Amino acid sequence: MSDLEKLAARVEALVGPDREVDISISTALGLVPAAYERAVIHDKPHPYFWHVEDTHAPYWIPPRFTGSLDDVRTLIGDEEWDLSTQHCIARATVGIERDYQTSWPGHGEHAGNDPVLALLAAALRARTLIPSSRRGGRSA
Q1: 98 contact partners, CB below 8 Å, separation of at least 6
Q2: Of 63, 64, 108, 140, which one's alpha carbon is 20 to 30 angstroms from that of 10?
């Protein structure tokens, strides 16, 4: 099971936003800028990253993938997606890198009770089918 498949399974098990999962997704997709490392204050990891050198951008905060539909959409970009809710069930489908002759190389689906988490899980499942050299997300 790949890292993205494991992350998709973690997202499917969530009942609400989780900053640790947001950080894991950012790290797995290579979204953490170079020269940044996880902030640790008093032996406790924090949900943001320090810049290793002294610059004008002293920290970087990962997108809130598990709590923001806008941030999830940055993972999908201009690709095709669908999200619907009915009877308290959110259903999401994501198609990445569609080739209109052979369908989607990356296609993911998920149904759950939270629209944001359903779309995120579907986006991660779709990315598992894309070669790793082309998986990176788009930063917001």
Answers
A1: 79, 80, 104
A2: 140
